[in-house]
């Protein structure tokens, strides 16, 4: 069994995925707008260029997938966070700073009893994240 995260955006999926690709080291594999698909017939004209399905690989078989929620069907994300596990303090600080830019910091990145660095935020696209550089366990 493999789990992948699927996100819904309010019309800014393409912008968000390009941002994540640039700053998280991902690779966009699919960025399919409604236009040119069978779904286009049921799609409002102003939504044809919005994303029907996007997929990004993040290494080690990890995937992040998303789409723009249909008009009138978007709900803000809640009840989860995407956890990013990094391998050093500098990377934790960089990822946290990048994702929190123009977003909302819920818990500033700092040392905790379990992590050398841990922080929580909601990015400018409304996606909740946790950045974690876990302490070595013996």
Ordered list of secondary-structure elements with their pairings:
Elements: E1 5-9, H1 13-24, E2 27-33, E3 51-57, E4 63-68, E5 82-85, H2 89-100, E6 104-110, E7 115-122, E8 128-134
Parallel strand pairs: 1-4, 5-8
Antiparallel strand pairs: 2-3, 3-4, 6-7, 7-8
Order of helices and strands: EHEEEEHEEE
* Main beta sheet: 4 strands, mixed
CATH topology of the largest domain: 2,3-Dihydroxybiphenyl 1,2-Dioxygenase, domain 1
- In total, the number of strands is 8
- Report the uncertain regions: none
Strand order of the largest sheet: 1-4-3-2
Do you know the CATH architecture of the largest domain? Roll
Shape: elongated
What's the CATH first level of the largest domain? Alpha Beta
Describe what you observe in this structure.
The chain is of the alpha/beta class. It folds into 2 domains: 5-68, 2,3-Dihydroxybiphenyl 1,2-Dioxygenase, domain 1; 82-134, 2-Layer Sandwich (Signal recognition particle alu RNA binding heterodimer, srp9/1). It is 17% helix and 37% strand. The chain has a 4-stranded mixed sheet, with helices on one face. It has a 4-stranded mixed sheet with strand order 5-8-7-6, covered by helices on one side. The protein is elongated and about 55 Å long. The mean pLDDT is 94.
Q: Keywords for this structure?
A:
single chain; 138 residues; alpha/beta; 2,3-Dihydroxybiphenyl 1,2-Dioxygenase, domain 1; Signal recognition particle alu RNA binding heterodimer, srp9/1; 2 domains; four-stranded mixed beta sheet; 2 helices; 17% helix; 37% strand; elongated
